[in-house]
Amino acid sequence: MDTERQQSPEGAPEQERKKEQIKDRGADINYGIDDNPPWYFCILMALQHYLTMIGAIVSIPFILTPALCMSDEDPARGTIISTMIFVTGLITYLQATWGCRLPIVQGGTISFLVPTLAILNLPQWKCPSPEVLAGMSDVDRTELWQVRMRELSGAIAVAAVSQIVLGFSGLVGKLLRIITPLTIVPTVALVGITLFQHASETASKQWGIAVGTTAMLTLFSQVMSEVQFPGIAYRKGHGLRVIWFPLFKLFPVLLTIAIMWTVCAVLTATGVFPEGHPARTDVRLRVLQDAEWFRIPYPGQFGLPTVSLAGVLGMLAGVIACTVESISYYPTISQMCAAPPPPLHAINRGIGIEGFGTMLAGLWGSGNGTNTFGENVGAIGVTKVGSRRVIQWAALIMILQGVLNKFGAAFIMIPDPVVGGIFCVMFGMITAFGLAALQYVDLRSSRNLYILGVSFFFPLVLCLWLQEHPGAIQTGNQTVDSTLSVLLGTTILVGGVLGCLLDNLIPGTPEERGLVAWSKEMALETVSPGDTLQTGGIAWEKNTFDFPYGMQLMRRWKWTRHVPFLPTYKMKL
């Protein structure tokens, strides 16, 4: 090849172009998707993914448990966090090994909080007055939140069946024909916008700490993201060596929580915060003291899940939002890991496994579903380690940590104003992620602006009114009343449906609607098992998305070519 380049100087620009294309797809990373780093290096990198996941998942119970009517000092709050971590480990391993086979962390998501709060806002699930709660025995108080958890568990598990069917049946490709950027924007962005009130309530318990938390997180993640710190790393052919890595870019949330938590501890010890103040670090000390050291989560640990039509249909909104979000992540992760674009069978399988994970999360009693963690995707881009094996180790760490109930209880002790400051950033980033899909559409079009305005504003107006008037819908049938109240009170569902209907019904050119640019981003293809995928002049390994076992037997069976989630799938979209 060197001789050939010398004889053909005019081919040099073409070679450089191909090098740039490979580099753009992450081929300059230290470990690619199919590489297996040394076990000790895997453990170090897995710990990083674990810590990144903790920073994202710890905030969910701070909104979920109060809506369940759970006491601030109830040790079961730690159990819920441990359950989330345990289930995250199970599904992450399953997804990375047999699902889409991308190095992603699959766990709890804020997207499910919106329908959850809509369901718990129904008259039959609203919490009793503080006076009534204070007069309840411990047994009655436990049953009060567990009956609500059972309702959420059943709704999440049954709603997840739709995602399982959507993925394993191959309907994802057909769904993407009607899920356009103008559908994605309100569906995802309204998740963050809807939760702003909870951020306000939590942050307002001590605005100084909350604003300091937001400012510090902004400083670490944006201003100091390129500041380098020394560390030890291993690279093939080089051994151990000292490297400089962006500490603040890798762990901005954890560093912010640790520092502000310490500040609150100092202010607590010096008596600045009086007894019982929500910013004190000892206000929930009983949670840590009463929590068990070891506890293995199991399905139905809070009782047999119950199912209602209103709950199931409401949770479908969370399923749809998570499906859209995960699909948009897959091409990005593949590019970062120097992997080929994910074929259709891998996307089908990924969505199907995500649905299976959400069903398990419901049955286990986490009160939440599963989705791709964007924070861990960012960690791959920073560390340049996209090995699937690292994520499998991280999943093992999560499973082991999930049985340490004391560890989960410790995170419940984070002061509320610190969490409120984190909310102000996290919910804003979720909104921004949804708005990012606007890059594909023509914002000079009055048609598109009309669709955006209606799909954003109308859901907020309708859902706020329903929250203030919970008994407004009266059809004479309680089941229908509850179902309509949940559906119309879930902003992401109302906004997503409005955006989808308006964009597909109002005339507009493909370029104007962003379909041309979106189709290039979501290029779904099927690759035959014996073929080599060519993308931009790059030849990719044909077995990246194959199963780890059983491929030879599968290739002998011709019928497997017609199964949408198997690696031998050959049908075109």
UniProtKB/TrEMBL annotation:
GO molecular function: transmembrane transporter activity
Listed transmembrane segments: 38-64, 76-96, 178-196, 250-273, 302-324, 393-414, 420-441, 448-467, 487-506
UniProt key word Ribosomal protein: no
Pfam families: Xan_ur_permease
KW Manganese (keyword) present: no
Residue stretches of biased makeup (Basic and acidic residues): 14-23
InterPro entries the UniProt entry points to: NCS2, Xan_ur_permease
Location in or out of the cell: Membrane
A cellular-component GO term for this protein: plasma membrane
Region (Disordered): 1-23
Protein name per Swiss-Prot or TrEMBL: Xanthine/uracil transporter
Family to which the UniProt record says this protein belongs: Belongs to the nucleobase:cation symporter-2 (NCS2) (TC 2.A.40) family.
UniProt topology in membrane: Multi-pass membrane protein
Record keywords, A-Z: Membrane, Transmembrane, Transmembrane helix, Transport
